[in-house]
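Complex record, two chains
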Amino acid sequence: MTPSLIVSYVGRRAIPFIQLYALYVLGHGEDGPGGGFQGGVIFASSFVLLVLIAGWARARKDAPESIVDPLTATGCLLYAGIGFICILLGGAYLEYEAFAGANATAAAKQHAHHFALIGIELGVMITVTASMVTLYFEMSRPPEERNAPEDGSGDSDGEGADA
Amino acid sequence: MIGFLTLALLVGLAIAAVRVRNLMTATAILGVYSLMMALLWCQMNALDVAFTEAAVGAGISTVLMLAALKRIGIEEHGSTHGPLARLLLRTMQEHEIQRRARGIRPERAATFAALLVCLLFGAVLLYGTRDMPKLGDPKSPANAHPEVAQHYIEESDTEVGPTNIVTSVLGDYRGYDTMGETVVIFTAALCVLLLLRHPQGRRRRS
């Protein structure tokens, strides 16, 4: 299925702006509506557009399984990792003030909150983006892509080892 | 006034989404439903929720449903009766002799039974709303609690920093819950991966 000229022309030019807007939503979450979750969903929607204009197989090359699959877990690990670092620094789990040290000023504590919040929002965004991209790619997988390429090669590898 | 209009539209859209037989149309209607819902959240000054509703409800979940429809076909097949109505239908068909004697059509009886259950459930829900506080009531327990809502509104600026209190509640005061939500998203992606990726290949290998 080749998309219409209009879809591919507009889509190609819209994708970078969609991704930039997603990053804006992530960064602007402190002062207005938005945050990691919404930013992640918007970022993922640019990949939906990519599938529409470039086709499933070509888009999967730009967002390969070997990168997107680990990223779904990376965001969670980043979030949980910040919590554990807080414990190592002497605070409670996810107690961001621990980043500023034991007897820090109020301003330093605020800075610690600020950076920890950016960190966890980034974690949320990474997980949401990768998960939504994965969900869309797996749901919209065309029939000719449903047989596993690496599975087939794995089988032939096994036979080769036997011979 | 606009609130009532939006609510009326929501009810109309919900009925339309259930009545339509073409699932593609139903999905589109659900997308509009989510957008209307986002408007309603805006009207309640819940901008973060409205944003999420518009991005997730009207945007990505509509896309995911369309992707799923491409796999299963866009026409609705078979009976529209729920499990309870089907059970009643089967019971009545088993006692066919009595049915014929009384002249009751089982399909119609099942529809009435389903309607009765819906009305009863709706009445229970309406009865339950009598105990809820008025929308935005400052004296309601959730808003008046000195250590929760009051504390967030008064201390968020000095304790956490962001001007958007929703962000400081989500990321800081309730950071543990947000981490749980992130893990839920991750689990969803993991389940879809395990269920949908290379099912044929795995079967061949085992």
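Note: Chain A touches chain B through 54 residues (CB under 8 Å).
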